[in-house]
Amino acid sequence: MRFILFVLLFLSFAYALGLVLVNNTDIGVNLLFSQAPAMNLGLLLILCLTLGIIIGLLLSLLLFRVFQNKWEISRLQKNNAHLQEQLNQANIAIDRQANAPTAEQAIYGTPAAPGVVADDIDNTIAADASVIKKTKRF
């Protein structure tokens, strides 16, 4: 990787040197509201290329950051939708379990209400747990 970077750096330096040597005419630069002093055309080309590359890299990094944020937002929205679906399924399972019949309801078919206890001996329902009477059937 360093070798490739070194070769690219060398080629860009050689290109810049070639521009300066071939374009050695002095020209004045008009900046709309001001006038820059006369400078070598090759140096002006190198300066413009360098500024263009720097501005292009900065804009591409900014644009990449925007796309990266959009990709992350869409990924998080999908993850949020998936977690919301899991939460809904968990709530449905909790509701089913809360409304499921108790053991007494499943065995005896009686509604289980607070304060109502089924008698084990004759399958009658007593109104209060303290008043349960156990009677044997003969």
Outline of the structure:
By secondary structure, this protein is mainly α. Helices cover 62% and strands 11% of the residues.
Kindly estimate the percentage of residues that lie in beta strands according to DSSP: 5-15%
Distance between the termini: 98 Å
Return the structural class: mainly alpha
Number of beta strands: 4
Largest sheet: 2 strands, antiparallel
How much is the radius of gyration in Å?
Answer: 42 Å
Count of helical stretches: 3
Mean pLDDT: 81
Protein described:
This protein is mostly helical. 62% of the residues lie in helices and 11% in strands. It contains 3 helices and 4 strands, in the order αββααββ. The protein has helices at residues 2-22, 41-98, 103-108; strands spanning 26-30, 35-40, 117-118, 125-126. The strands form 2 sheets. The protein has a two-stranded antiparallel ribbon with strand order 1-2. Strands 3-4 form a two-stranded antiparallel sheet. The model has no long low-confidence stretch (mean pLDDT 81).
